């Protein structure tokens, strides 16, 4: 069983940067990949970025690609998402997910709210 806990969300101004963190637990903790997703109010959850847990290979998706960097510490079992140049349309709940076997994301955190507003 994998537990995921996100942190780092909040109210920020347009143009700000923010780092979201995801702490993973489970014994043993061993997954194929982890990723960040976001879900704006009234919209579907969409993927922002993913990272191969073993190799650290990074993948970026959608309109945030180019403004985000995903990273992981596979000793501490943590994953971060650095977001730059935040825009009001980035307002959403951000979730981290774990894909244990390369068959899809099976585990989710509770989400952290990011609100971008002046």
Molecular structure report:
The protein is an all-beta fold and 118 residues long. It is built from no helices and 11 strands. It has strands at residues 3-7, 10-12, 18-25, 33-39, 46-52, 58-60, 68-73, 78-83, 92-99, 107-108, 112-116. Strands 2, 4, 5, 6, 9, 10 and 11 form a 7-stranded mixed sheet that branches. The protein is globular and about 45 Å long. The model has no long low-confidence stretch (mean pLDDT 95).
Topology record:
Blueprint: E1 3-7, E2 10-12, E3 18-25, E4 33-39, E5 46-52, E6 58-60, E7 68-73, E8 78-83, E9 92-99, E10 107-108, E11 112-116
Parallel strand pairs: 2-11
Antiparallel strand pairs: 1-3, 3-8, 4-5, 4-9, 5-6, 7-8, 9-10, 9-11
């Amino acid at each position: 069983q994998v537990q995921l806990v996100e942190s780092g969300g909040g109210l920020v101004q347009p143009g700000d940067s923010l780092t979201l963190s995801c702490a993973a637990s489970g014994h043993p903790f061993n997954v194929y990949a982890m990723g960040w997703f976001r879900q704006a109010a009234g919209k579907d959850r969409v993927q922002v970025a993913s990272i191969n847990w073993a190799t650290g290979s990074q993948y970026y998706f959608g309109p945030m690609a180019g403004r985000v960097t995903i990273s992981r510490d596979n000793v501490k079992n943590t994953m971060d998402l650095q977001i730059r140049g935040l825009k009001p349309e980035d307002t959403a709940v951000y979730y981290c997910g774990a894909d244990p076997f390369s068959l899809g994301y099976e585990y989710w955190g509770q989400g952290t709210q990011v609100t971008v507003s002046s």
